[in-house]
Each structure stands twice: as structure tokens, then as C-alpha cells.
Amino acid sequence: MLFQYIWISTNNNSGSNFPFFKELNNLSKLSTDFLYGDYVGVLIDSLNLSLQLHLRTSLKFTASKKIVIMSFRSISKLVGCKTSAAFIDNVFKTHNVRLFSSPAGGYVSDNFEFIKTSTVGSKNNVGVITLNRPKALNALCNGLMLEVAKALDGFESDSNIGAIVITGSEKAFAAGADIKEMQNNTYSHCIRTSFLEHWNRVSKTAKPVLAAVNGYALGGGCELAMMCDIIYAGENAKFGQPEILIGTIPGAGGTQRLPRYVGKSKAMEIALTGCQIPAQEAEKMGLVARVFPVDKLLDEVVKVGEKIASNSPLITRMCKESVNVAFETTLAEGLHFEKRMFHGTFATKDRLEGMTAFVEKRPPNFTNE
Q1: SS3 readout for 111-159
Q2: Main-chain dihedrals φ then ψ at residue 174, nearest 5 degrees
Q3: Which of 219, 273, 257, 265 has the alpha carbon at shortest distance from 241?
Q4: Where in the chain is the domain with CATH 1.10.12?
Q5: Mean pLDDT across the stretch 133-161?
Q6: Most CB within 10 Å of its CB: which of 60, 219, 274, 319?
Q7: Helices 254-262/220-227 angle, 10° precision
Q8: What does the alpha-carbon distance between residue 157 and residue 56 come to, in Å, rounded to a whole number?
Q9: Alpha helix segments (H runs only) across the chain
Q10: How far apart (Å, rounded) are the C-alpha atoms in residues 236 and 294?
């Protein structure tokens, strides 16, 4: 089965008065019997929450833009609303409508409470996990992190996925761990349950994980971003470890990963004062790879994910492991590990294909072997 997604991103507060949204509401009245087979999920990122609640997320469409237009017109006739190809084409041009398709076997699930998952990119080889607790500014509760782990498991098992992006909303990547959830924890409970241990699933992911951070990334949110392999930020992003302000310390890597990113002195300042670091400063100190405009962030990070996914998955994994070893061992041991990994690439078909393609001046055809 081929799944398609239209993502309409708009800040139009009066979305319910926009004809396109009205027609979608009409289409949502179709019987469920009509919604089997290939379909388009309509995901609305809008300030109009009531609109989101009333839209059905499974509407029957097919793959290309042209077919989408034709199918939209065909279905519209069934519910008595008028839609022209020119009108839909204008929607594509003016309202940031993007088509993504996910091949059979792609890991996209509607069975999550605190996150959303999708596969994006021209080859559908980038998995996206969107944190989705807007009322709590994406505070990281236990349930959310368990869902993130489950989504990572799904993307890891999907051979078509070459990179994974974790993101939040424009207002908050994640404003921290859920304080209400941990407020009454005891020391014995934390020890017995290995509290926060399962958060490490992100850092143990074999495939590259990219953080796309807009808004607040504080406390556990900052730690979650640092678990990823590369952090990209929107211009409005703010990073920090404010645990000191509520009588505790970072518990998911803040005191360990932060000094490795920014050095001891700056890490001490951030951890001991609870101050917030804007995106531009975070980029200068090495915490963030690049800063993008807020509305361009996810698209740009997906492009990076596509670039990574175009390489040999096997060699990508070896490269990621080699870089991570640099943070775990001495220089001499790290250089030895790297050399052995380098030698190991000569046992792979992808190394031979890559070098042969370079010599023959053609694109490589990697097979993950």
C-alpha cells in the first residue's frame, strides 16, 4: 500500500473560513468504507485547533500532484463542493503544501498519544518524529519517551530509512522533563526503576539522528537534543539546563554531554546559573551545527537527512560509531579504532562500488553490503 501525506503549514488563524479547509471538512464526512486503499493523510499545522479536531486524517487520494488534483475534484463531486485544478494549484504555491509518500513497510503510525511520525523526502528515506504535547510545551513525560523509543525501533527496522529527525513545534522543541510526573519521586524509587534509563534509547540508535530545534530546548529537552548526532536550530531556539533552579541537577546527560560540546567553563556557567543560550550563541560555541529561519528549519534538516541517506547505510553506521568513540576513549585508542574501521570498509561491496563509481565518474549504487 502507498501512503501519501499532504502537510499544510499555515499561520492563518481564520483557517475555517478558507475555502480549501471548508472543502476538507466536507470531505471528512465521507463514509469510512470509501477510505480504504491508497490514501492521503491530511496533517494540518495551524493555529486553528478546532479545525484540526474536525478534520478526518484519512482521505482517498493517489500519488502525484496531478492525480491529487483530479481525485480531489472527483471526490468533491460526491459531497457537492466545487474545486478547480487552478484553485488547488494555487494552494500548492501559496500555502506551503508538500507531498510526501511512504512505501509499503514504511513506519508511520497513528497509534501514538504524545508524538507523530512520518516519512519524508523525495525517496521517503528520512523518518520524522514530532513531539506533540503542545499544552505542556512538549514536556518529556515517561509515556512520550517510551513512544519515541518505539518510533526509533520502527525506523531502525525499516531498511528504506537512512536518517531520522526529531523535532517539536515552533514554540518548543521540549521545554524540559515533566516536573509534575517526577515531583513526588523518592530516591529508592529512582534506584529501583532506573529512572530515566530508557531515555538513552536515542543515543543508542545506529542510524543518524538529527535534532531540529525551534523554541525552548531546556533541561531534558536540551539533553534530548544532545543525544542526537547533529543539532540544527531555528533562529528562535533557546538552550539551557535550568535544573539547578528547582533544586536538582541534570539527570539525562546534561553534566556529561554539555562539557563535551562547549567545554568545561561554559558548561559550568550554563549548569550552575540555569541561564538560557540563544541559537546564535549556541552555534558559536559548537552546540549547534547551523541556524536556519524558523519556518525553513525542518525542510533544511530533512535535506541534510536525505544527503546522509543517499550514502551507504553500512559505511554511515561505521563512520558514526567512529566519531562517537572519540568521546569515550583516549586519542591513541580512538585512532587505533578508526584505523581498524577504515580497514574494515575494504571488506564491503559498498566501498568497492563507491571508489569504482568515483573512478568511472558516475553516481554510486550502494547496496548496504
Answers
A1: CCCCEEEEEECCCCCEEEEEECCHHHCCCECHHHHHHHHHHHHHHHHCC
A2: -165, 120
A3: 219
A4: 313-359
A5: 93
A6: 219
A7: 60
A8: 29
A9: 19-27, 49-54, 65-79, 85-94, 142-157, 179-182, 187-193, 220-227, 254-262, 264-273, 279-284, 297-309, 313-325, 331-345, 349-359
A10: 7
Nearest CA among 300, 341, 296, 313 for reference residue 163 = 313
What's the CA gap between 62 and 39, in Å, rounded? 6
Whole-angstrom distance between the N-terminal and C-terminal Cα of the chain?
27
Q: What is the pTM of this model?
A: 0.70
Lowest-confidence range among 109-123, 136-150, 308-322?
109-123
Helix (H, G, I), strand (E, B) or coil at 329: coil
Looking at the chain, which residues constitute the CATH 3.90.226.10 domain(s)? 105-308
Report the alpha-carbon distance of residue 110 to residue 134 in Å, rounded.
Answer: 17
Return the C-alpha cell found at 215. Answer: 523554541
Where b means 16+ CB within 10 Å and e means fewer, 148-172 reads bbbbbebbbebebbbbbbbbbbbeb
Please give the CATH topology (third level) of the domain spanning 105-308.
2-enoyl-CoA Hydratase; Chain A, domain 1 (3.90.226)
| pLDDT tens-place string over residues 228-285 | 999 999 999 999 999 999 999 999 999 999 999 999 999 999 999 999 999 999 999 9
- How far does Cα 8 stand from its chain's mean position? 17
Q: Give the cell for residue 319.
A: 563512520
Query: 312: which 3 cell numbers?
Result: 551507504
The residues that are catalytic are 177, 220, 223, 243
The architecture in CATH of the region 313-359 reads Orthogonal Bundle (1.10)
pLDDT tens per residue across span 120-141: 999 999 999 999 999 999 999 9
Helix (H) / strand (E) containing 238: strand 238-240
The sheet with strand 126-131 has its strands ordered as 115-120, 126-131, 163-167, 209-213, 230-234, 290-292
The number of residues making up the chain comes to 369
Rounded CA separation 272/40 (Å) = 49
